[in-house]
């Protein structure tokens, strides 16, 4: 095919347009970075290298937990222990790196009024405290308090987060705040949420690295507990030091949380969560000790209404799309659409994650029914983790324990399967 001059011209114009868009994006990225440098330049020391004050040990909370190697499944005989809470489902927070410097004159030309907008001081709004609710069996031993603010700041949760709110006299660029916190954020393993809004806004807006808006009202919400354990002394110190440095560079006053109270509240909440953080699992194995063919297993699972996920597990979902239980391979190989045809397995395990299921008793009933359906379809038998056939009494005992654990969660204002439960048990 002969390419005409018109076609050559169109291809050349397209190439120029692509280069122009790329160049504009690079320029815009540098502008945002320089906004941060302009706003927060100073002689303060790097928070990541900040040395804790001599009396920092008064906030120490012993950390007896060790990082897990892999996820584990609790059996019907499992008795939860606070030291085992962080042995599942590790979640790693992303870190950000600084980009190369650009000439200061670029920022001066782009945003000449930034320093004027941040010249006045502002105050923080923190209202009265209230105690952490007890469980149905016995109170959580704690002298700590929840930070409660005067209006809804969803998705921040004053129950599960250390919430700090501050305001500025004029809107502050979200890119500047994000760049400032990224200098010390990587030193904190717990999730940290930033929210912003302006007078008249009906909702708080989540702020991330792509946010370009400006906000007068700000919220920093640091989660105090998850399956890795409670917020640590070093994390709360870094959080407070970072906020203090940010306030100084912005020229505003940020009232910091009481670190001792925050650590005590985190330890108490984590101890309660450890007591109800249980997974129950049963298995279906080949009756004669043989194996199941992958193609037959997939057919039976799909006939039972299960969905193969990208994580290599089959999932039972409720009407809202939330997981009720999952099915994993007893062997090390995951269930993947491309290789399940050639896969052979000695059995599967059906697992229910108690805190993350809204109606645990109903979900467990469906789990048992599904296990029996799989056993009939595959020629297998339903067993417990000791490979003993599952008796009705054992199944009833597991169901009763699930109900008991979920009642404790509800009494502690952590509804099973709720957003708060997913936050704490992740």
Please indicate the percent range of residues in DSSP E strands (runs of 2 or more). Answer: 15-25%
Mean pLDDT: 77
Cα-based radius of gyration, to the nearest Å: 27 Å
> Could you give a short account of the major beta sheet?
6 strands, antiparallel
Helix content: 25-40%
H/E series: HHHEEEHEEEEEHHEEHEEEEEHEHH
Shape: flat
Strand numbers in spatial order across the main sheet? 11-12-13-15-9-16
- In total, the number of domains comes to 2
Number of helices: 10
* Uncertain spans: 42-82, 88-151
**Amino- and carboxy-terminal Cα gap:** 58 Å
Would you kindly provide a written description of the structure presented here, covering whatever features stand out?
By secondary structure, the protein is α+β, with helices and mostly antiparallel strands. It has 2 domains: 80-87 and 117-274, no CATH class; 278-424, ZipA, C-terminal FtsZ-binding domain (Cell Division Protein Zipa, Chain: A, 2-Layer Sandwich). The protein has helices at residues 5-40, 104-110, 114-117, 174-185, 233-250, 259-276, 294-303, 360-378, 392-411, 419-424, and strands at 129-130, 146-147, 161-173, 192-197, 205-206, 214-223, 225-226, 229-230, 279-286, 292-293, 307-308, 314-317, 323-329, 344-345, 347-353, 380-383. The strands form 5 sheets. Strands 11-12-13-15-9-16 form a 6-stranded antiparallel β-sheet, with helices on one face. Strand 11 (307-308) and strand 12 (314-317) form a beta hairpin. The longest helix has 36 residues, at 5-40. The termini are far apart. The model is unreliable at 42-82 and 88-151 (pLDDT under 50).
């Amino acid at each position: 095919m002969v390419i005409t001059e018109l076609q050559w011209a169109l291809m050349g114009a397209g190439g120029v347009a692509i280069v122009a868009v790329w160049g504009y994006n690079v320029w815009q990225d540098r502008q945002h970075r320089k906004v941060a440098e302009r706003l927060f330049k100073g002689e303060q020391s790097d928070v990541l290298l900040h040395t804790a004050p001599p009396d920092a040990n008064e906030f120490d909370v012993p950390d007896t937990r060790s990082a897990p190697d892999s996820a584990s499944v609790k059996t019907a005989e499992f008795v939860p222990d606070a030291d085992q809470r962080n042995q599942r489902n590790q979640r790693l927070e992303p870190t950000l790196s600084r980009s190369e410097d650009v000439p200061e004159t670029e920022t001066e030309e782009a945003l000449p009024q930034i320093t004027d907008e941040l010249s006045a001081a502002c105050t923080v709004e923190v209202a009265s405290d209230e105690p952490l609710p007890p469980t149905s069996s016995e109170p959580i031993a704690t002298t700590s308090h929840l930070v409660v603010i005067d209006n809804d700041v969803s998705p921040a949760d004053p129950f599960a987060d250390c919430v700090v709110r501050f305001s500025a006299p004029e809107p502050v660029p979200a890119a500047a705040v994000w760049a400032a916190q990224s200098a010390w954020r990587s030193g904190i393993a717990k999730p940290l949420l930033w929210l912003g809004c302006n007078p008249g806004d009906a909702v708080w807006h989540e702020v991330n690295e792509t946010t370009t808006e400006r906000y007068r009202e700000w919220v920093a919400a640091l989660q105090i507990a998850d399956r890795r354990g409670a917020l640590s002394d070093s994390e709360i110190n870094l959080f407070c030091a970072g906020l203090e440095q940010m306030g100084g560079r912005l020229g505003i006053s940020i009232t910091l949380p009481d670190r001792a109270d925050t650590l005590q509240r985190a330890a108490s909440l984590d101890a309660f969560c450890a007591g109800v953080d249980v997974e129950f699992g049963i298995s279906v194995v080949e009756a004669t000790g043989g194996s199941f063919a992958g193609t037959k297993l997939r057919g039976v699972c799909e006939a039972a209404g299960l969905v193969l996920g990208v994580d290599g597990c089959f999932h039972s979902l409720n009407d809202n799309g939330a997981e009720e239980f999952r099915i994993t391979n007893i062997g090390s190989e995951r269930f993947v659409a491309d290789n399940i045809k050639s896969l052979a397995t000695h059995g599967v395990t059906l697992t229910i994650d108690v805190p993350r299921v809204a109606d645990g008793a109903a979900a467990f009933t469906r789990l048992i029914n599904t296990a029996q359906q799989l056993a009939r379809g595959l020629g297998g038998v339903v067993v417990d983790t000791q490979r003993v056939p599952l008796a009705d009494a054992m199944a009833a005992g597991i169901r009763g324990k699930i109900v008991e654990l979920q009642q404790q969660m509800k009494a502690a204002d952590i509804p099973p399967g709720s957003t708060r439960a997913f936050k704490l048990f992740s």
